[in-house]
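User: As part of a screening pipeline, I want to sanity-check one entry by hand. Below is the sequence and the SMILES for zinc ion. Please return the complex as structure tokens so I can compare it with the automated output.
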Amino acid sequence: METNLVFSPAYNTDLPAFGLDKPFALDRGEMVLARLARDLGRTLPYETPLPLTMEQVATVHTAAYLESLKDAATWLNIFELKDGEHKSATATKPLPEMIDDFLLKSGGTLLAARKALKMGLAANLGGGYHHAFPDTGRGFCVINDIAIAITCLKSEKLIKKVLVVDVDFHQGDGTATAFAGDADVFTLSIHSEEGWPEVKQKSSLDVGVLEKDKGRYLELLKAALDEALQKFAPDMVIFVAGSDAYEKDILPGTRYLRLPLAVLQERDRYIIDTFADREIPLAMVFAGGYGPDVWEVHYHAVRRLLERSGTMFDTKTEAAV
Ligand SMILES: [Zn+2]
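Assistant: Here is the complex for your manual check:
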């Protein structure tokens, strides 16, 4: 049976080899797969993606920006590295070579989107670089895999109207900018109003949650999803399922929400079920999430996706698993 999971052990970027010891969004796919294998008593199959070609990347990003990625200074800027955070003396690989990792993980998003069109639900156990703008990268995001996957599938005429549901702690500003003025892509971003990025962009629908309103997070999310579906009838959905609004996220900048696991589990279940019930294809990507525990959020989301797609779990026997 074809798998609807996309992953590669090569997703785990060897940061020290690039001279970096910053706590980026570390690999969560392996943790999720290990936990699912424990639940099932067997290993789950996944498909390894092909890296994107630079031609595919150029459907979204400007030639000048892509050229600038050959310069290490551009990468230091994207990763916001301060003095001493890039140890060039111990690095064995130049920073621009990290493009290969981004091309692979972004190829995973395109493959997951193709699988969603075929199978209904699919997930890339990585990706979600929603802060990459067409002409610049930032916030650890080099190329916008979400925008590239949508643009490629639209140009192949496989889809016309796409809804992006972005629930990462941070606004999906790069994706919103990439599709500003495109009536066929509806960008919905539910994020913390407080914290980075200080200047927000304009999505089709933005819900900026204030810290004082975090008790109403699920209520606001459900209302926003209802509103998006009243305004827009998508052929498919890209679900940007960041885990950095979790209370165990360690990035100081995410302190404004700090939501419990049960809330995030309900968030992801609600989103997956909303589109599975309507038989609208949905591809999930991981996006942000920092520290050793955030994989727990992704685990529950992937598990729900597998339950609803009927590929790994039977919902009727869920209680017994
Ligand atoms: Zn984030």
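Points to compare against the pipeline: Residues 99-119 form the longest helix (21 residues). The CA atoms of residues 210 and 295 lie 25 Å apart.
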